[in-house]
Amino acid sequence: MNAMPPVEVKTTNPAVLAFVEEARALFKPENVRWCNGTKWEYQELLKSLVDAGTAQWLNPAKRPNSILVRSDPADVARVEDQTFICSRSKDDAGPTNNWAGPDEMKRTLAQLYDGAMAGRTMYVVPYSMGPIGSPIAGIGVMVTDSAYAVANMHIMTRVGDRVLAALGQSTDFVRGLHTVGYPLASPSAADVPWPCNKTKYISHFPETREIWSYGSGYGGNALLGKKCHALRIASVKARDEGWMAEHMLILKLTNPEGRVKYVAAAFPSACGKTNLAMLVPTIPGWKAETLGDDICWMKFGADGRLYAINPETGFFGVAPGTSNESNLNAMKTLHANIIYSNVALTDDGDVWWEGMSEPPAPAIDWMRRSWTPGSGRPAAHPNARFTAPAAQCPVIAKEWEDPAGVPIDAILFGGRRASVVPLVSEALSWRHGTFLGSIMASEKTAAAAGKVGELRRDPMAMLPFCGYHMGDYFQHWITVGEKGGSKMPKIFYVNWFRKSPEGKFLWPGYAENSRVLKWIFERCEGTAGAVDTPIGKLPAEGALDLNGLNIAPGALSELLRVDRDGWRTELPSIREHFATFGAKLPAALNEELDALGQRLG
Ligand code: O2Y
Ligand code: MN
Fold it and tell me: Which of 329, 217, 344 is nearest to 277 (CA)?
């Protein structure tokens, strides 16, 4: 694991040098490697993962330059219970975050960090979230002893010397410390394929823009640029500086006349965000292209509109359920240069996961055991992932790396609701849209803890990712809306998952969602009809393009039905939800709730 020689240090920035030196003194690694971000370096990282037994090469005839990594079975997903917002005041973390005092947390972690990288290489990873030099982008410097994390950062962010050059002598960078927490007695001591620690902490220090992560090597716990930086720390920075860091995909829509609209959309996990980000419209002449599938940073441009970038350069997508039917463009993206984590291995050296195709026979499951279809257990872990370069996506928009960003026309919220919530509605105003985002909810599926069907509120899909008090976050949305005034994007609420009384999905979803996107596009142009209802504006009769769609009789009226009783029944649960934010809940949201109650009658 320590094969790579140290490379030249390409910065004289005293703040960066001091940060790295302090980390070295604490972690006590065998050596330090400054990552330069080259392709050569990436290949060396993959080779070191294979040499260490963490990864294996896939069949190059099937998946060129791709590896399969299997993690420790106890290290397979983000650990929300062990994720902390360590603001100076507990009240700033709010009711939706775990909190610990920054000094106390740093004392705990400094003890765990002491010597934690013994026998290992400490990689220094300068990275940019967003196109280097973009006024919307932000820089981080992360140290880690995980070659897996570094290889993933290479795909997911812009890494290396050019980032240090862009940073110059500035001190405005996020400082990230990460260790798997598995020191070695010596560099030649026996290692395990996936070093990690039973003890895990994912700690954020919002005031000092620091992230301290311990014990996990997987995904969001270890790729500090993603959820930790681009959402939890960035949401705080965005509040302080007057911009928005959101858990949203970014999509470009082009109509048959060649006019373009940009849409950002927030959905909780398991609602098909990556699928929507890459959808192939079914309506003739319409085009959809991807700018991002997970995170969106938006700042005001000189013209007063909100401009968005995707801070990432890759997709860290859930593999199970991804198929040619559900997401053809993702499948095409995955042909080469991929890091697969915890998927199954076929006997011809390819990958497989549930929902991809007919099951292979036999295969090796994600826990390295032989597996046959019908064995009663999944071959891939439900949170198995692919890390894929965004540039490989066949429908990546040409402006996806534009440093200026793209002007956002519409923001979509959505969740998984079997009843009550219609296929699509348009908010009456930015403030009403903020209200809709603040009450976003999904019904629990069998995969989530809790009773199936129970509502889980996930405001703006930011519940696990907002780095401060969510009441203040709602207020930030309202404040930003007041600043942008009439130039703010229109807000819509969509629900692809409404069911008939018999429990059948009413809407085909997937590519057919383009019909809803068309209505949204045309609402932004002012050409599509809408009717006012108590819950917002719904498509007027005939405004939703259903040409060529085979939809059950009566399904459309049910999809667009305003279920007044259902909404009335929901009001107390919204009040209860709002009560959790105490005095920090903006009065404007209570006013919106009261107004909804009045409109429902
Ligand atoms: O489980 C993890 O470590 C990753 S979670 C994740 C990854 C990519 C995009 N979104 C998410 C999420 O939880 O929202
Ligand atoms: Mn996400």
Answer: 329
Same domain? 118 vs 233: yes
- The answer to whether residue 420 sits within a structural domain is yes
- Out of 221, 223, 227, mutate this one to test ligand 1's pocket (max ligand atoms within 8 Å of CB): namely 227
H or E element at residue 587: helix 587-600
Query: How far apart (Å, rounded) are the C-alpha atoms in residues 417 and 561?
Result: 14
User: Is the distance from the beta carbon of residue 261 to the nearest atom of ligand 1 less than 6 Å?
Assistant: no
| Total number of domains constituting the chain | 3
480 and 353 within one domain: no
Is the pLDDT score of 2 beyond 60? no
Nearest ligand to the C-alpha of residue 312? 1
DSSP 8-state secondary structure symbol assigned to residue 379? S
Task: Note the pLDDT tens digit of each residue in 451-462.
Answer: 667 899 999 999
Same domain, 127 and 193: yes
Residue 387: other Cβ atoms inside 10 A: 25
Question: What are the structure tokens assigned to 249, written together?
Answer: 């995909």
Q: Give one DSSP letter per residue of 330-350, joined into a string.
A: HHHHTTSS-EEES-EEETTS-
**Which residue owns the Cα nearest ligand 1 atom 14?**
269
- Residue ranges of alpha helices (H) inside 55-180 are 90-93, 102-113, 147-156, 161-167
User: Taking the mean position of all CA atoms in its chain, how far away is CA 117?
Assistant: 29
Do residue 553 and residue 596 come from a single domain? yes
Report the nearest atom of ligand 1 relative to the CA of 317. 8
Ligand 2 center to 310 CA (angstroms)? 13
Mean local confidence (pLDDT), 454-477: 97
Ligand 1 pocket mutation pick from 72, 247, 316 by most atoms within 8 angstroms of CB? 316
Measure 415 CA to ligand 2 centroid, in angstroms: 14
**Whole-angstrom distance, CA of residue 333 vs CA of residue 395:** 9
Residue 150's nearest CA partner among 170, 119, 122, 110 is 122
Dig out the tokens for 142 from the structure: 């992360």
303 band by pLDDT with thresholds 50, 70 and 90: very high
Q: How far apart are CA 138 and CA 575, in angstroms?
A: 37
pLDDT in tens, 359-370: 998 999 999 999
